[in-house]
Automatic annotation (TrEMBL):
UvrD-like helicase ATP-binding domain residues: 2-473
Gene Ontology CC: cytosol; DNA helicase complex
PANTHER family: ATP-DEPENDENT HELICASE_NUCLEASE SUBUNIT A, UVRD / RECB / PCRA DNA HELICASE FAMILY MEMBER
GO molecular function: 3'-5' DNA helicase activity; 3'-5' exonuclease activity; ATP binding; ATP hydrolysis activity; double-stranded DNA binding
Quaternary assembly: Heterodimer of AddA and AddB/RexB.
Protein name, UniProt field: ATP-dependent helicase/nuclease subunit A
One Pfam family in the UniProt entry: PDDEXK_1
């Protein structure tokens, strides 16, 4: 009999009350769950009287197998009691049909057994494909929407306008679908929907409403507390000297101001509170001269200044902009208008849900959400005043066991409580630190609530903590504990990482075992694109693996207590997303490192699938050039480029199919090629006829058989995998025809939708699986697994912000948060309700990202290797060093919420300045207590990365002496209206902007006057021999970059992946040339939307105009006032230009302009001066057009990820 710990014994043998087991990573929770079942069976319990819920069907199958194996092991004991032996033997035969399954599978069994209770047709199929579900939803909403449009419903039109833009009503569609996904997992869906508008229907005085006192004020005061905490942290950090005392005084004054606001917040009117908040500002900011800076610790000085700036920003963005945009009267008016819109939305939502259900039932189909709702209806339904289904299950199940309890949703918890009927028979096991399925509406707060309640003395139920980690080395445990004791608490993470939560070493690795954790930050001083950034980390991982293998790294087998050589299968590579997988496959193949990718997200990008989809497209419609040429070039036909060109020459103007026909009929054609084309025509027509009379699956199989493509790809590298991919397409087609959609064209559309929705099929496993391979998977896929060495890749990948950045937000408690569109000004006003939900969502998002980090790090048995990237390590270390640790030992909330990456969470927790030890004068750091070593390295691992902070001086708009001299020369011209003679009345900004720069004589000479009197630059069209070259100009890259920034959707925060996909699509449709696309730095574009300016744009996306064209007649005197080109008030010039971006606010306009120039710290001032005039001109033009002042003008230099506010004098 195994030796159990005291806590494990409790989890196995305690009964008579509800039990919550909080099982840390590696604590053996599945083993404990199995042993509990075994002990119950040994004591006469029957397996069919237990309900055991698992998170996946695979976990259920594994549990059944392990139960059978454990029973067989017990039966080997010759001293086993005869009665017990016979009972256990019976259980073996019952286990395959026992209620050990997912909750969805259990719900399905309830419906199949008691369908008649709610008059449900028992002949239904399960919709398991998200794409089919999405198409059915679109069909349902189309039906609902059309009825509203037919009635010309004005309230519906107003609601649609509020959630959509001028181009389409896709915004409303998105809101309806997301509201459905959120509401359907709520245990009280109808009640929740009914209450959505209630918190908007408020009367004056606002400060006396329940919403104000119970919802608004607590969050408002929490925001004030954060400012106090940040200020106190700065006070604790500031040096005790003359300058430090000045900063301490400044922060103390801020604390006093904030505490006064907080003290009076409950009594003050909303308008008075608004005024008080607007007055929050630093009143005694110390001014530090260059002389004073000499000999000072600039790190602390920079930190204190940074805290001050962050507090100022928090007051502006987190208080004023979130809550006090309007006065009380306008705020209440906006809320009441929003309430009407929400009431209409709920009406539409209910009709959509009803129509969606009707369509599903008409095609005899249910989805997973239906299983839960129908099961609840059955369990709650009464027949002759008896709940026959519920009575049956309550008497049947003596105990309900829930595995992975931290990931249940509200509806599933409702089902569990219904079945239990307060019989104190629920055994729940899970780990809130591993709740990572928020996108499936998992509700970790359910676990957290019971975790707190079960600890109370007057609660009869029991909390058991399993903290012993029998998986990982002490180094891994210590490293994990050192991070999470500083970032987890009840506010962020939903649990205090105290002694009950921290990992306790349960292994006994020898002292000489290599368990040193490694953190590598790759860096490069110049800017690189996202491909290089990604590939550099992949290449580094490959080199590290090679080095480990070549050195015969010793893995310690904790079970057998012996060392052995490292195998590839001992290594797992984890990453946050699947975006790296295709590159991993490519590079590791070249490096000859065997790899097994569980989900490559490139199924539809494989050659064989591209060929087959192209074939199906031309069977559907042969007059599609790209798929037609793809098939002709493929092994199916096998034409080469020269032959394809010959065909095109037969008809350059029409489609390629027509050119093929003309080529076959032409006398001058290559007869051998013509015969091949005739054979292809016959084959294609055969397939088209066959498709009209047979299923898609049969068509696909016919193509496989007659073209030999299955055999062909089987002979290629990775042939078995490629053949498996083609078999998967056949199976997908077979499954598709069981749905409500029919026909080849619809199937092609179905597959294309899957690609667009990122619902790419995982590559199916090939027949042969090589055991000794490096495993690659996402963090989600790794949950429950363990590996001797874990390589965690792409630590610098930004957190997912879409859950709190998007326009309309949802919350169980607060309901729905909307932005209100002012139909007159076209300005959107975020409601206070939305601001409150956004704050909660941000906390929830960061909490889940932290839990994902916990899952990733705790997969390692012996050693962790972590790899990230950072362009500016100096700034990175500075940010880590400025982390504020509260008295509780936890990093302050603002720092955690602003971390943004796993790299920063790890660094600020374990490698901040007071814990980092510098070794050998290199960028090589370690925290010996936390068992982690950090190396900031160049990609070749030989160059050292500078971590010096550079002070960037930004020029003011004062003209240089050369510029003034040039202007004076121009002013000496005698004719008053010279420009009326020498210029046209039409000028573009690109031609004018050079006049505002500070050119030298040569540059000035390049600005010429044409014979038509138009200011021009020396920019002739390329001659043919240059146009045909493969070289790419900076202008071409700049234009393509601007195009991507114009086209990228702002509905969600643009990421590296979304820009990558947009670039791929743009190359495919020909709007961007491939050689130009390769030169675009996509990472800098993604970084832009992580900047303050990018966040500002996303926050006001509804009022953002990109590539804003304008034409405005402007006085020449006003236009050229700084150049000396004119001083006549009568001269006017029509100025035409395109502004990169405009944010139109109620009180003014913000301009922004991206620049792709190769700017660095040395020439930044020059670049700012060069473009200042251009932005000034934009500001003049837009203020004339919009009749509003321009509040701010931003230049954003993508190369260095820096915004410059030209409206301020920045030093």
């Amino acid at each position: 009999m195994p030796k159990w710990t005291d806590d494990q014994n409790k989890a196995i043998f305690h009964h008579g009350h509800d039990i919550l087991v909080s099982a840390a990573a590696g604590s053996g929770k599945t083993t404990i769950l199995i042993e509990r079942i075994i002990e119950m069976l040994k004591n006469g319990e029957n397996i069919d009287n237990l309900l055991v819920s698992t998170f996946t069907e695979a976990a259920a199958m594994e549990m059944k197998d392990r139960l059978v194996a454990r029973i067989k092991e017990l039966l080997q004991d010759k001293e086993l009691n005869k009665e017990v032996r016979e009972h256990l033997q019976k259980q073996i035969f019952k286990i395959p049909i026992a209620n050990i399954s997912t909750l969805h599978a259990f719900c399905l069994s309830v419906i199949q057994k008691f369908y008649y209770v709610i008059d449900l047709d028992p002949n239904f199929r399960l919709i398991s494909d998200d794409t089919e579900k999405s198409m059915l939803q679109e069909q349902a909403f189309d039906n609902v929407r059309n009825k509203y449009y037919e009635k010309n419903d004005e309230e519906f039109m107003r609601m649609t306008e509020n959630f959509s833009d001028d181009r389409s009503d896709d915004g409303l569609v998105d809101v309806v679908f997301k509201l459905y996904d959120f509401a359907i997992t709520n245990a009280k869906t109808d009640e929740w929907l009914d209450g959505l508008s209630s918190i908007y229907k408020l009367d004056a005085p606002f400060n006396q409403t329940e919403f104000y006192q119970k919802k608004f004020l607590p969050q408002f005061n929490k925001s004030l507390d954060q400012i106090i905490s940040m200020s106190q942290g700065a006070i604790n950090t500031a040096l005790d000297d003359e300058l430090g005392s000045l900063y301490i005084k400044m922060f103390k004054e801020m604390i006093e101001q904030v505490e006064l606001v907080k003290k009076s917040a409950a009594e003050k009117s909303f308008d008075d509170l608004k005024e008080s908040v607007s007055k929050l500002k630093f009143t005694s900011v110390p001014r530090v001269s260059a002389k004073q800076k000499e000999g000072l610790d600039t790190t602390i000085l920079d930190f204190v200044k940074g805290v001050k700036d962050n507090i100022t920003k928090r007051i502006r963005d987190g208080l004023i902009n979130d809550y006090f945009i309007q006065n009380e009267t306008d705020t209440l008016a906006s809320m009441n208008t929003s309430a009407k819109i929400i009431d209409k939305l709920v009406e539409v939502e209910r009709r959509f849900m009803k129509e969606f259900t009707r369509i599903k039932l008409s095609s005899h189909a249910l989805d997973f959400n239906d299983l839960e709702h129908q099961a609840v209806q059955i369990l709650s339904a009464k027949v002759d005043d008896k709940q026959i289904a519920l009575d049956y299950y309550q008497s049947k199940f003596h105990e309900i066991m829930i595995d992975e309890y931290q990931d249940v949703n509200a509806m599933q918890e409702n089902i569990i409580q219904l079945l239990s009927n307060d019989d104190n028979n629920i055994f729940m096991v899970g780990d809130i630190k591993q709740s990572i399925y928020g996108f499936r509406q998992a509700a970790p707060y359910i676990f957290a609530h019971k975790y707190d309640e079960f600890q109370k003395d007057d609660n009869p139920n029991e909390l058991i903590n399993l903290s012993m980690n029998f998986r990982s080395s002490g180094s891994v445990d210590t490293f994990v504990n050192d991070i999470f004791k500083k970032i987890f608490d009840r506010t962020i993470g939903d649990i205090n990482y105290d002694k009950n939560s921290q990992l306790v070493e349960g292994t006994d690795f020898p002292d000489d075992a290599d368990t040193q954790n490694e953190l590598y930050i790759l860096t490069k001083e110049h800017n690189i694109n996202q491909v290089t950034k990604r590939q550099s980390q992949i290449e580094f991982a490959a080199k590290r693996i090679k080095k480990l293998m070549d050195s015969k790294f010793q893995v310690y087998d904790n079970k057998h207590k012996e060392y052995r050589d490292l195998k590839y299968s001992d290594i797992a590579i984890l990453s946050r997303t699947k975006g790296n997988n295709t590159d991993l496959i490519s590079y590791f193949s070249k490096a000859e490192i065997p790899l097994m990718v569980t989900d490559a997200q490139n199924y539809f990008q494989t050659t064989e699938l591209q060929i087959m989809m192209a074939m199906l497209q031309i069977v559907d419609n042969p007059r599609q050039d790209i798929p037609l040429v793809a098939v002709l070039r493929s092994p199916i036909v096998g034409l080469n480029e020269e032959e394809l060109a010959q065909i095109r020459l037969a008809d350059k103007g029409d489609d390629y199919y027509t050119a093929m026909n003309l080529y076959v009929e032409a006398d001058t054609s290559d007869q051998k090629l013509a015969e091949r084309l005739k054979a292809f025509f016959i084959q294609l027509e055969t397939y088209r006829d066959f498709a009209n009379k047979n299923s898609i699956a049969r068509l696909i199989w016919k193509i496989y058989q007659e073209t030999g493509i299955l055999e062909y790809v089987s002979g290629m590298p990775g042939g078995k995998q490629r053949a498996a991919n083609l078999h998967a397409l056949y199976q997908r087609a077979s499954g598709y025809e069981e749905t409500n959609f029919k026909g080849l064209h619809a199937f092609i559309d179905f597959i294309q939708r899957m690609e667009k929705m990122n619902k790419d099929l995982s590559q199916p496993n090939s027949i042969e699986v090589v055991d000794d391979t490096v495993k690659v998977m996402t963090v989600h896929a790794s949950k429950g697994l363990e590996f001797p060495i874990v390589i965690f890749l792409d630590l610098s990948h930004g957190f997912n912000k879409q859950d709190y950045i998007g326009g309309t937000l949802y919350d169980v408690d607060l309901g729905i948060g909307v932005t209100l569109l002012n139909t007159d000004s076209r300005i959107t006003i975020p409601t206070i309700q939305r601001a409150l939900i956004a704050t909660k969502k941000k906390v929830a998002t960061v909490s889940e990202e932290m839990r994902l980090l916990y899952v990733a790090l705790t997969r390692a048995k012996q050693k962790l290797i972590m790899i990230g990237f950072e362009k500016d390590t100096g700034k990175m270390f500075s940010n880590w060093d400025s982390t504020i640790v509260q008295d509780s030992g936890v990093i302050d909330e603002a720092s955690r919420l602003g971390a943004g990456t796993y790299q920063n969470l790890i660094g600020m927790s374990t490698l901040s300045d007071n814990e980092r030890l510098l070794a050998d004068g290199t960028d090589h750091y370690e925290n010996r207590d936390a068992h982690v070593e950090l190396k900031a390295v160049q990609e070749d691992e030989t160059q050292k990365t500078s971590t010096n902070n550079k002070v960037i001086q930004i020029a003011t708009e004062q003209p240089s002496k050369l510029f003034r001299d040039t202007v004076n020369n121009i002013l000496n011209f005698k004719y008053q209206h010279q420009e009326a003679v020498e210029t046209t009345a039409y000028q573009s900004v690109s031609e004018i902007k050079g006049l505002f720069a500070d050119p030298d004589d040569d540059e000035m000479a390049d600005d010429l006057l044409s014979d038509k009197g138009k200011y021009i630059q020396d920019s002739f069209a390329k001659p043919k021999f240059m146009a045909e070259t493969k070289s790419v100009s900076a202008a071409e890259v700049g234009s393509a970059t601007h195009l991507l920034l114009q086209k990228i959707s702002l509905e969600q925060t643009p990421t590296l992946e979304t820009f990558d996909k947009l670039l791929t699509d743009s190359i495919t449709d020909g709007t961007i040339e491939e050689n130009v696309g390769k030169r675009i730095d996509l990472q800098s574009l993604a970084d832009f939307y992580q900047s303050d300016l990018g966040q500002l744009i996303l926050e006001h996306q509804a009022t953002v105009s990109r590539e804003f064209p304008f034409s405005v007649l402007m006085p020449a005197k006003r236009l050229f006032k700084n150049t000396g080109k004119s001083d006549s008030s009568e001269d006017k010039i029509l100025v035409h230009g395109i502004i990169d971006g405009v944010i139109e606010l109620e009180d003014g306009i913000i301009l922004f302009d991206y620049k792709t120039d190769n700017v660095n710290n040395n020439n930044l001032d020059e670049a700012i001066e060069k473009y200042s005039g251009q932005l000034n001109l934009y500001a003049q033009a837009i203020s004339v057009i919009r009749h509003k002042p321009v509040k701010e003008k931003y230049l954003y230099f993508l190369k260095i990820n820096q915004a410059v506010n030209l409206s301020k004098n920045i030093n």
